[in-house]
Amino acid sequence: MNENNTTINWYPGHMAKAKRQMQEDLKLIDCIIEIIDARIPLSTKNPDIDAMAKGKCRVIILNKADLADEKATEKWKKYFEEKGFYVSAVNSKNGEGIKGITELIKKACASKIEKDLKKGIKNRPIRAMIAGVPNSGKSTFINAIAGKVCAKTGNKPGVTKGKQWIRLNKEVELLDTPGILWPKFEDQKMGYRNAFIGSINDEILFPEELAYELIGILKKLYPGVLNERYQVEGLEDHEDINEIIRMIALKRACLKKGAEPDTEKAAKLILDDFRTGKLGRLTLE
Questions:
Q1: Under CATH, what is the fold of the domain 13-176?
Q2: For the chain, which residues make up each domain, given as ranges?
Q3: CATH architecture of the domain with residue range 206-275
Q4: pLDDT tens, residue by residue, 101-139
Q5: Which parts of 79-237 are beta strand (E)?
Q6: CB-CB contact of 66 with 90 (8 Å)
Q7: With a threshold of 0.85, does the pTM exceed it?
Q8: Could you tell me the CA-to-CA distances from 88 to 45, 55, 66, 188 in Å, in that order?
């Protein structure tokens, strides 16, 4: 396999429908809380949401921060804050960083609350829309902040099928929405990065191509990570990434009949190790 030229785009009909529904619901909400993946913050920040969110208060949640490079996450947090967003890094699975989110939402909506008070409107809850790409952890975030299971979760895109309102307390109500991508990745690297984290349906992709791209990035940004994980002498010394995948296949007994290395199985293993944090805390942007 050589460096590939596959075009990655995934925008099924249900996403177009979900986007239309979100646009209709904008009149109901005060704030948009965008959930992005801390490992690839730019690639999971949907430009369509920016276009829809004009005039709304904005909060960004750098989710899955436990899987990302801590120093890189701090830099990204500062970057988005300088752009005018209210930002928090969280681990929705164990609740780390969740406690202060309600106050962050109130800070983001301070001017809105003040305007309401001047109009004599008191104790009106802030209504916030939860948005993000598929598999960014929106439902896990909602369950963590609500302290109970309100939304279905899963490790594949498309688990949230429709909208639902979740009342956190007297101050904040959340509107959950399905994950949406945008119709076309202008930069195909963004497409690959979204594929790495599972935002794009695995069934339409070739795992060996994804592993090839991922290994190329890891060799550049985190040299030594593959050697440490797979314990193969001289693994990363190879310029040929296909050979690296073959060596990992042999090491992990990913074999076909005749003891031939099963590179597809090894590729899936590498991708899964990245997604679950077994390769370490990594940020690809």
A1: Rossmann fold (3.40.50)
A2: 13-176, 206-275
A3: Orthogonal Bundle (1.10)
A4: 999 999 999 998 888 888 888 888 999 999 999 999 998
A5: 86-89, 126-132, 164-167, 172-176
A6: no
A7: yes
A8: 15, 21, 13, 28
